[in-house]
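In this section we walk through a basic example: taking a raw amino acid sequence and producing a predicted 3D structure, encoded as discrete structure tokens. The instruction is simple. Fold the sequence below.
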Amino acid sequence: MINLVWLKRDLRVEDHAPLYYSQQNDRPTLFIYVIEPDYWQLPDSSARQFEFIAQSLRSYAQTLEKLGGYLCIRSGDVVELFTKIHAKYPIDTLYCHQETGNDWTFARDTRVFNWCRSHQISVNQYPQQAVFRGKLNRDHWQRKVSHWLDSPSLCAPSKVNSLINFHSGLSLLDNYPGDDTFTAQKMQLGGIHAANKTLNSFFDHRINQYLFGISSPLTSVTSSSRLSPYLCYGVLSLRQVLKQAASLQVNKRQKSGFIARLHWHSHFVQKLESEPRYALQSVHKSLINMRADEFDSQLFERWKAGCTGVPFVDACMRMLNEIGWINFRMRAMLISYASYHLWLDWPQTAAYLASTFVDYEPGIHYPQVQMQSGTTGINPFRIYNPVTQGQKYDAMGLFIRKHIPELDHVPNCYIHMPWLYNGLKTDRYDKPNRLPDDAARRAKQKISEYYKKNIDETETQRIIKTHASRLKNRRKKAAQTTVAQLSLL
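The resulting token sequence is shown next.
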């Protein structure tokens, strides 16, 4: 009989419960990662994500080998592969971390655990975030979070009992199983060495500029922690990062700002865990059809390519397409512009953005998309003004000029609104289909009319009870009337 440690989004050895607890018995352990070709056909997956995972798995294999363990990589359907393993090496216990992913991974996990049950294989699952399964009372969530954070981190064992004595299947990482070629030229490197280098540089000095620089796409490249892909794929332990941050002797405001955002990480993932429908349709059932039957494919393609005619929006999208990362505020603006100004229903825009993010975390992505698209029914409408955002965070137009060379003939005074420049060469950079202010007014009117006719306050109260933050000031905002929400522009 053997142990099977199934790796998913947890590519590390430190504070790794499946690894740790699998070594508390005398059974040999097989450490396995499965490349699932069907997953890599999904619209929210991409070659850039696979490349980061591949780099992290190679790094993981090297670290595991130092403990006497070896990694097995296979490609195919998980249940079929586990069936073959079980026929040759009977599995006593499957060890893995809980995963809050998209609908596809949820269905896959269900099939795997049903297979285990039918073959009398024990399943030990462990949380690696402050996210809890089953019926959850949000009033008690913070208490559960504190208990999880206070629990001790698990050290990697000094020696592991490995079933195999060589790495198997690492060459499979050389071949991406998806159909897209959506790589990122300048994306962050995967693996524990790159993760620790990024973490140390942030805690050593970059954190001192954290709150000052995280909002601008220019300064956030160095001011943000840049830890998101390493937390996303479990190269770093969220709990360990939080504990390290708490012990830092740095500016209290910068430190508190960073720790607060780490807590919000689990807050949003919990939303998807509690209601998986977040990734499929509007979580507020009254708003499912708010943008139905109005999807303009041409506007969608222009938005994807960074060719909407609004420079700051386009520069942000081009940066994201190029490196696979952009700061949080600009992600929110890209979603807001697509959902309001272009009036594109969010499922397709969400899937495209997910594929651009190297650090795609479904539990954060989909709740944020719905929040920025106005489909939760409890959050104020965030109709970002892309011109004023650009003027505030790229006053000199340096960021725009870097990513949109087609505007090299446009004077600085027109760089944020080139449609006002009589000399604009529209054969190189076209005007927007509708000016931002006009589009925002149109969206505001559409939302107002739809809410008045369709909103169900009982459903709104359900959303508040299930998902709203229990911090008093945020709860008060969540309970504001629709009229108050519509005053925000």
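Looking at the output, two observations stand out. The chain has three domains: 2-154, 192-274, 278-486. The longest strand covers residues 29-35. In the next section we compare this with other chains.
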